[in-house]
Amino acid sequence: MLVDSTLKDRLHDLLTPFLFDINDKLTRKKITIKLDKFLKDLAIFDYKVICDETNNTLNRIVKNEVWIDVAIQPTELEEFVFIPIKIGEKDVIKSSRSI
Fold it and tell me: Could you tell me which residues are beta bridge partners of residue 66?
């Protein structure tokens, strides 16, 4: 399954306000809450948002990057679609791949 470009655009819009925020626990918590609220309202079977110290290593924090891993299972019969997202110095960068 390919991730719909509208979903990618919406994720980009939701995360752009965090572009210049410091990568700390509070920022990561705010990002997780914002994405949880957004994904909960979608007509999807399951999802998971990971934005914590497991995917934000000290090296990434020093580079002022925030990494978010989003996994979406559109229906019970479909596999999860993984969307790794990086908020960097200049933009929100995302890529998708189905695993």
Answer: 87
